[in-house]
Amino acid sequence: MAWMAWTWPTGIFFMVIASLLVVFTVLAARYPETPRRGVLGIETTRGDRLFITLLGSAFINLAWLGLADAAQWWALVISVVYAAAVFRWV
Amino acid sequence: MDKTQNNRAWFLVLPVLILVAFSAVIPLMTVVNYSVQDTFGNNQFFWAGLDWFRDMLHSDRMWNALGRQAIFSAIILVIEVPLGILVALHMPRRGFWASFCLVVMALPLLIPFNVVGTIWQIFGRVDIGLLGHTLASLGIDYNYTSDPIDAWVTVIVMDVWHWTSLVALLAYAGLQSIPEAYYQAARIDQASRWAVFRYIELPKMQGVLLIAILLRFMDSFMIYTEPFVVTGGGPGNTTTFLSIDLVKMAIGQFDLGPAAAFSIMYFLVILLVSWVFYTVMTNLDRKDVTR
Fold it and tell me: Which residue numbers delimit the ABC transmembrane type-1 domain (chain B) (predicted)?
């Protein structure tokens, strides 16, 4: 595995993503849901909303890195707020 | 109505998951690991945090390549999609000529990318190429190795020649699926040719056209081989598209960290656009089902 050049931060990053996938898979199996139509006007399930959250968070973090001069933690805070909004309204 | 679900079917997906893990997920994870570190070879890595991402986001080189790439993809879509539809509309629907046209249209798609590049590289040369020599004898000052506009025109025409067939074939498949009754109804109503296209053919082709646009966008956004063979990214950097720039950075300069950060951002853009297309397509399908 040395060739993959693992570090603790990237390891934790992937573990969080993997855990989210496992949790959402279990949720989908245990508590099946009907897709709903939110502010985007498209049908989404919990999994879709997770994808929109993760992809959007990546862009929020990149935008923060490129445009703002403050600590990167703030981008994470914005991402959490964004995630809550996506799960509530999308 | 209760739907019987057998989740054991998921095991059938396992081979694909394993294949994707080895061909995509593990390499992608490695790229993420590289993007936060610096290396001078010998498998030794030094933590760099988000510095490469910051550098790339402030790099004119990356933004210029992205700009060129976006312009290239936009031009390709604007030309190839209407041209493909036009070709499909004029292809015979049945008989010998229908098969003949299909084979002829499929030919450019069968040629390997580097061969397409080589064909056009020779074709455009002023000394020995048919195109270059003909243009020169007509008094047109054409030289794709030194003039940026000529280089762009050559790369675009080459891509149009190579890939318009794909759009045409997909549009043709869409047209073939329209039942004759629609045309009969249009004839009874004395609909014009434009009305038939606008209200029958275009809506019926919507699904395949979206797939065509998605495929052409993704392919043109990742284009590497053909422009690399023809222009090598030149003259200067004028045809250095994202993937050419990325390869120069990763393999030419061995800047693995910045190249990894660059790749991740490149990947995110493609992922975003593909998701938008996928969402639009699936929503259209649902509308069709409920209609």
Answer: 66-277
End-to-end alpha carbon distance in chain A = 39
Residue B37, chain A, CB below 8 Å: the answer is: yes
Q: What is the pLDDT of residue B278?
A: 84
CB-nearest partner of B265 from A2, A7, A62: A62
B18 belongs to a structural domain: no
Per-residue pLDDT band for B291 (boundaries 50, 70, 90) equals low
Burial (0-12, 13-18, 19+ Cβ within 10 Å), B280: middle
Q: Over pLDDT 70: what percentage of chain B?
A: 95
Query: CA nearest A44 in B: which residue?
Result: B279
Asked if residue B16 is part of any domain, the answer here is no
For the entire predicted model, the pTM comes to 0.85
Radius of gyration, alpha carbons of chain B: 23
CB of B261 closer than 8 Å to CB of B55 = yes
